Amino acid sequence: MKIREEALVDLRYNITIVILAVILFILLASNGLVVDKVTEINRKIFHMDDEIRYDIVSHELPIVVSYTKPGTQRDSVIKDAFQYILGLFGCADDNPVSILVAEHPMFLPYDQMMVYRPKTDEFDLNLQVEEKTGEVDEIIIPAKHPIPTQLSKDHELTNSDSSDENPSHITYDFNNIKFINETGYNIKQIVQELYDNPYSFEFNRESDSILIYHTHTTESFVTQVSDIYDSEIFTRSNDPSENICKVGNALYRSLTGDYGLKAIHDTTVHDYPVFNNAYSNSFKTISGLIKSNQNTGIVIDVHRNALDRDVKLRLPYETNEGTVAKISFVVATGEIGLPHPNWKQNLQIALRLTNILEEMYPGITDPVYISKYRYNQQVSDGALLVEIGAEGNLLEECVRSSKILAKAIHIMLSGN
Q1: Peptide bond before 118: cis, by omega within 30 degrees of 0?
Q2: Which long-range contacts (CB under 8 A, 24 or more apart) does 76-79 make?
Q3: Cα 346 to chain center, whole Å?
Q4: What is the pLDDT of residues 342-392, one digit of tens each?
Q5: What is the pLDDT of residues 14-40, one digit of tens each?
Q6: What is the mean pLDDT of the segment spanning 61-82?
Q7: What are the sequence ranges of the domains in the chain?
Q8: N or C: which end of the chain has fewer CB within 10 A?
Q9: Nearest to 393 by CA among 317, 338, 333, 282
Q10: Are 386 and 328 in contact (CB under 8 A)?
C-alpha cells in the first residue's frame, strides 16, 4: 500500500511538471503576442488624451473626481493628480509598464519590451559622465552696467483675444512679443507693472559670471530634415558633441570669446538613467555651482523643444547667414505651491531678451511660455530657461542660434 501511494505521488508530480512545461511552452510560443499587447498598451498610454487620463484617475482615485468639473481646470487637475499618483507608487508615464509592475511583479520581465522607452543601446549602461566646466574667461571689463530692463516707451501692450475676467490660457501680445499663459496670473497686468515699475538688476562684467547648464542633458536632434517624419529616429544622446551640450558650449564660447563675459558651462548629465529625476538632479548641480561662484549674475538652463509625437517639431528661421533655430523662453511661476518669490524678475529678463532678439531678427522667437511649475528658477533672480530649436532642428541650426542669443545677452548687459 505504501509503495502504491508513493507511486501515485510520483505520478502526480510528473503530471504537474508536464503541465507546467506545457504552460511554459505556450508562454514562450506566445511571447510575440505578449510583446505586441504590451506595446499596444504602451502606445495607448503614451498617446492617451485627457479623457483617458480622467477615466484612469476616476477609477483608481474617485475622490479626485468629486472636486473636478469638465473643462480646462479639470484637465489640469487630472494631469497633476495622474502624475502625482504615479510618482507615489514609483511609476512613470514615460515607462507605462511600470504601472503594471506596481500591480504585480509578474510583469517585471516585460519591462524591457516597451518600444517607446529610451533604447538602452543608445546609452552606455555603465555611464560615467565626467563633470565638465568651462574655464572662467580672464578678460576684465571694469564698467558696471545695470541691466536695461525697462521697456521702451513706444511699446504698447495689446491683447489679441483676452479678457481681464479670464486671464489664463490665452495669448497676449506686447509689441510683437507673444505670451502663452498656463497659469491663473493676469500676465497682461503683470507685464504692464514691469513696464511701469521695473525691477533693478545689475550685472558686474568685472566679477559676475553666467552659469550655463542642462537639466535635460541628453536632448539631441535629427541629422537630416527628412528624419522629422521618421518615428524610429531617436533624439536622445549621451554624446556631448551631438546633444544639447554642444549648443550650450557654443553659447559659452560666444559669450566669453566674442563678448568678453565670464561664463561657466556645466555638462553634468541629469536626465539619465532616470528621466523623471532630471530637475532634482540639476537642482543639486546648479546649487553647487552657485555656492562655489558667489558672483553669479545669470543662470541659464538650455533646452530644446519637442512634440513627443511621431512627427518631430521643427522650428526653422531663415537669415542671410543661413537657417537657424527659433528661440523661446519658459518662465516658471511656482503657482502650484512651490516657493518662487522672484519669478517676475525672471520674467522681466526673459521679456527684455525676447525684445532684443526680435529687434535683431523679427520673428525669431516663439511665445514666452508662462508655466505653473518652478523648474529650479527659484535659484536666482536672473534665472532663465531657454529653448533653442526643437528635436526636428539640425544641430548646426541650434548652434548658430546660440551665438545670436549670446549677442542679445551682450546687448542687454551693455545697456545698448
Answers
A1: no
A2: 76/182, 78/50, 78/53, 78/54, 79/50, 79/53
A3: 17
A4: 999 999 999 999 999 999 999 999 999 999 999 999 999 999 999 999 999
A5: 677 677 767 766 655 555 555 555 555
A6: 51
A7: 2-117, 144-414
A8: N
A9: 317
A10: yes
Dihedral, 272, 274, 276, 278 alpha carbons, nearest 10: -40
Distance between terminal CA atoms of the chain?
A: 105
Cell readout for 364 is: 525669431
Count of residues in the chain: 416
3-state DSSP percent of the chain in helix, strand and coil, to 5: 45, 20, 40
328 bridge partner residues: 387
Please report the sign of the dihedral spanned by the C-alpha atoms of residue 254, residue 256, residue 259, residue 262.
Answer: positive
* Phi, psi (degrees; rounded to nearest 5) at 86: -60, -45
Superfamily (CATH) of domain 144-414: Zn-dependent exopeptidases (3.40.630.40)
User: What are the backbone dihedrals phi and psi of residue 371, each rounded to the nearest 5 degrees, phi first?
Assistant: -105, 150
Which residue is associated with the grid cell 498610454? 45
* Whole-number Å distance between alpha carbons of 31 and 40: 14
Helix axes 50-60, 72-88, angle to 10 degrees: 60
Q: If phi over 0 gives left and psi between -120 and 50 gives alpha, with beta otherwise, what is residue 233?
A: beta
pLDDT of residue 211: 98
Residue pLDDT, tens place only, 314-332: 999 999 989 999 999 999 9
Strand pairing category for 177-181 and 171-174:
antiparallel
CA angle 31, 35, 37 (to 5 degrees): 115
User: Which amino acid is present at 202?
Assistant: E
pLDDT value at position 98?
A: 58
CA–CA separation, 270 and 285 (whole Å)? 9
Handedness of CA 188, 190, 194, 197 (dihedral sign): positive
pLDDT at 231 (0 to 100): 87
Please choose, from the candidates 345, 340, 237, the residue with its C-alpha nearest in 3D space to the C-alpha of residue 297.
Answer: 345
- Upstream peptide bond of 148 is cis (omega within 30 degrees of 0): no
Strand order of the sheet with strand 209-213?
A: 157-158, 171-174, 177-181, 368-371, 327-332, 383-390, 296-305, 209-213, 262-265
**Among candidates 294, 297, 299, which has minimal Cα distance to 205?**
297
Query: What does the alpha-carbon distance between residue 133 and residue 214 come to, in Å, rounded to a whole number?
Result: 12
